[in-house]
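Q: What structure does this chain adopt?
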Amino acid sequence: MHSRSLFRSGLMALSAGLALALSGCISFGGGKGPDSLFTLTAETSVPAGSTASGTAAEALVVLDPETDRRLAVQRVAVAVDPSNVAYLKKAMWVERPTRLFRSLLAETIRAKGGRLVFEDNEGTASGRLRLAGRLLDLGYDGPTRTVVVRYDAVLEKPGGEVSTKRFEARINGVDPESREAAPALNRAANDVARQVADWIG
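A:
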């Protein structure tokens, strides 16, 4: 019994030590509410009073990108190594990253000029062009101190033609703190959105 108690005490001490080691800038579990709420804001947006017209069938429909469970939550993902993911401590997205990224894409494409753009999260809206895809990364790489945004775009054209392209933006030298990570993520996401808008034309 004595040895079992010592074993339990050792485990408790080890757990406490691990918790302290991870209590810096990232976390693996719950805790208090976030001190920071992250969002994505288009650096290029449509001016007030601007108009676009056309039929629904001629519009571009921007769909929610698919993603894995790592990015399907409102926590800000941090890659600890190739097989482990944590989350930025005391920070969350204001809503799902895929929804924020979809809205950013749509606004950036609108701002490029003249195109009628709809957003759809169900994939039911009709349009001449449909922009779908998969959000592969929208987070922070711990070992390299880099913000990474990576998106596989799928453009569905009339007649069943499909085009795909991968887009990526990285910002190096970012500390894992909200005041640095939030604006860096926004800049990288805007970079990717501009690349996509240029690709669509």
